[in-house]
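pasting for the record
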Amino acid sequence: MKILVPVKRVIDYNVKARVRSDGTGVDLANVKMSMNPFDEIAVEEAIRLKESGKASEVIAVSIGVKQAAETLRTALAMGADRAILVVAADDVHQDIEPLAVARILAKVAQEEGAGLIIAGKQAID
């Protein structure tokens, strides 16, 4: 059984977010980004299932900007077997609609033949 784990790139939980001077959003310039902590827990659980023999492969997937490749490298370093990056936006300030993310994730799960999807309970952003 393949396990698919969606991971999200967020502002590091140790960093205090700053609002842009014009008040239109969060200032992401020179801000440390990392994997969502709840997604880290999901990756760890998927790896535990694989190590116990209940799964054959752990696949981390991220949907967003190309900079999310760093987050996927973290998942690979934790023990994921493969990583998939779906570039859905070119600008880090552009939000991706949740329904679009859900549809992309469903398509990836179908194409990969995932038997289980383990997701973090929420995003910290």
